Amino acid sequence: MRLKLLLFSLALALNSIVVFAQSDYSVRGKVIDLKSKNAIADAKVSIKAKKQGTMTNGDGEFYFKGLREGSYSLSIESDQYDNVEMNFIYSGEPIDLGEIYLQIKHKDTDYMPVIYLDETEDESGASTQNIAGMLSSSRDVFVSKASYQLGSTGRFRVRGYDSDMTQMTLNGVTMNDQETGRIFWSNWGGLNDVMRNTDINTGISRSEYSFGGVGGSTDIDVRAASQRKQVRASYALSNRSYRNRFMLTASTGLMENGWAFSGSFSRRWTESGYIEGTPYDAWSYYLAAQKVFNEKHSLNLTVFGAPQRRGKSTASIQPVYDGVGDNYYNPYWGYQNGEVRSSRVSDYHQPVALLTHDWNISDNTKLITSAGYKFGRGGQERLNWYNTQDPRPDYYRNIEPYNRYYDTYYNPGSPDYMNPAMEGEVNQAWSEWSSDPTKSQINWDRMYAVNASSDEEGGKRAKYIMEGQYSDIQQYNFNSLLKSNISDNVELTGGLEYRHYTSRIHKRVEDLLGADYWVDIDQFAEREFGKGSDQSQSDLRNPNRKVKEGDVFGYDYDANIRHYGTFLQASVTGNKVDYYIGAQFSYTQQWRKGNMQNGMFPENSYGDSEKLNFMNYGIKGGATYKVDGRHMFHANAAFITRPPSFRNSYISPRTRNTSVDDVAELNSEKIYSSDVSYTYRSSMVDFRLTGYYTYMEDKTKLMNFFWDDENSFVNFIETGIDQKNYGLEMGLDVKLSPSFSVSSALAMGKNMYADNFTVQAYQDNNEQRVIDPQEVYSKNFRASGSPQTAMNIGVRYNSSNYWWVGLDANYFDHIYMDFNPVLRNEDTFNNTDVFSDGNLSWTPERLDGQFTMDFSAGKSWKIDEVYLRLNLSVSNLLDNTDFRTGGYEQLRFDRSEPSKFPSKYYYAYGRTYFLNVSVSF
């Protein structure tokens, strides 16, 4: 009892001392993170005239005492925040400055490694990466590492998510593609200087400007007044996707007359990128004007676009890579009159215009309303041919050495399989094939010659053409966001959204390759039903039409999507506990409108299809427990439903109106997700450890490919896909001295199929089902698309003389191939011979773990008011050219000889560099 009394008395005495000490001050305050409202510990606070300094404590508080009466200037500095200076007058009475808010720094992209768009992207240039670090950086150590060091070479994706799991907005307007849900980073590629003002939320944490997705949300402020006042020019030299980059940016900042203007221009170009036959020519532009009328109202107009053309490359089978001695063999190009020409070209220009009105209704309430318009064309050019030899050098029948020696050297069932005695003979065959560009590359001269000799009535009928597969889009967006602080610690955020999207998806003739016309018929239907048949007509309203360059042919339809959404979110900030809760509701309607009457489906191709309607909702919430300003615990949970994408809703939209819902259950996807984190932040250490679990249910996926068995294009329909992703994330940054720091990131996850799903298949030009619904035995298969283990450790030295150098080591593992579902269905399971030769595995192939290193350095100079910066980054410093980042099993298969069509692989670039010099004032 006496001990308890003694302890109580001691505690009371200590408390009295603390209270007395805190009341015996001249000036005090509390430093707070503007966004999170959390206290900032270990911020440096100094009074300039007195040369006094102190550090904020764990609750973000600071105190000064013993000041004389007079005027003072207070400075607050913290590594990750913009500095703040403020003046105050001390009259002898204690001053409480209250809460002082610091804003997170926007890092200078000159000092960052570069993410480049590569050939794992889909045809639109939409990256599978879901991190906004493509154009900016995050304060979070792990996210920053995942964006650059782990994301650039290893193609790592945070938590295994595709970019459609993240909501991307500009001035509050959704930028995700409406047909796929993915983020098209190339829509603003090259505009780094004006895309820095970002608000990034990872995972299912609270979002400032939207409800967000399971992968988080990113909003970029593209207002003119938000741009840094400067004139800046830069030039970069690289050996990655492009060779040269020039950028020029000028921004006035907010002028005294209430106007602000900003403009940016860039060009990136090369005759060939790291992979041969990949020319690149991309431009970008940005113009913004803002008028601040008064303290309550401002209006901003922003227009930007990024026209681009780039040659593409593709994956190949390993025997080809080995045979030609190059893991970057690209079959998409060839020589025309002695010059390199690509047969697969991405071509995009879809400008965006945003009109944003900011209304400060009161000191505590703000309404942000934006209207957006996006339009333009995007797609790719590629070869097409009629009743003649397939021109692709990687078409399996055209790979002469592989076909010649398959039965002996390459067939696992052969006694001479990989026989060293045959190696010289095989290598000689590959050497002859690869050294003859008329065989190993596209033979443009031959195609022109074939067309020139095709003399029919009416002129030269094309056997070969270059066709353009395009989407001409028109998208109208309206978004209104209300933010209100209804009390000192309670904030309400709500929004309304409407999206009106129409895309005309069609083919047109780009180049007749010397011929006079192309006949618009379906050659696959013609083979089955005969020449001149109705079934072979692409459009019964225009039979046997002769089309020329610029004409639309083949297919032509509209994808229509209408989306209405609303969300409401409440957040409460407390001394020890912060928490939030949010909900969203949406209604989505989509339908196909055919602009051609297809001969195979005369009653089900022209005009509007039935409308597909989806009502979806989501709820999420989270809490943060603040032990003090350094130690914090966070927990979040969400349940979200979302509609299937348009691309996954129609069996064969190129030919007919039939939806997946007509042959199977087309359901909204349901997502359950949660995460728990511990964070520690001080002046020396920044640490986060997170555990997460996400379950995705009822996903639908469509795949289209040419199937030899049916001699036509076939559509695989996968329904009832359930997937679970779970694991750990860790980010750590330790400042060992004012100049030297060590940082690390670790991701250990499992992304896998949670259960079996169903597959069935239909032809493009026939209603007949070619594969009845069958179960695919996919349970516990690992998912493809990203390394599921990724590690980084880096060191960095920052000199007081304004130069720096950094070195990073990376390791990637648990990389899996995308598998062919038909090789894991009931028919295959009952056919034991398919996997008997040992060359195919029942489970998806796991690729070898790989190690890479990255180097970066920079130097800056200030001459009067002019800043000059020089920066270099080298990725894959050790030139690891054996790093297979992924790939897929071919959908083309032969059950009698399953190893005849081996998997195709992607390789990470070897050593690449990016050298940038900039000047700004």
UniProtKB/TrEMBL annotation:
<dbReference type="GO" id="GO:0009279">
    <property type="term" value="C:cell outer membrane"/>
</dbReference>
<dbReference type="InterPro" id="IPR008969">
    <property type="entry name" value="CarboxyPept-like_regulatory"/>
</dbReference>
<keyword id="KW-0732">Signal</keyword>
<protein>
    <recommendedName>
        <fullName>TonB-dependent receptor</fullName>
    </recommendedName>
</protein>
<keyword id="KW-0998">Cell outer membrane</keyword>
<feature type="signal peptide">
    <location>
        <begin position="1"/>
        <end position="21"/>
    </location>
</feature>
<keyword id="KW-0472">Membrane</keyword>
<dbReference type="Pfam" id="PF13620">
    <property type="entry name" value="CarboxypepD_reg"/>
</dbReference>
<dbReference type="InterPro" id="IPR036942">
    <property type="entry name" value="Beta-barrel_TonB_sf"/>
</dbReference>
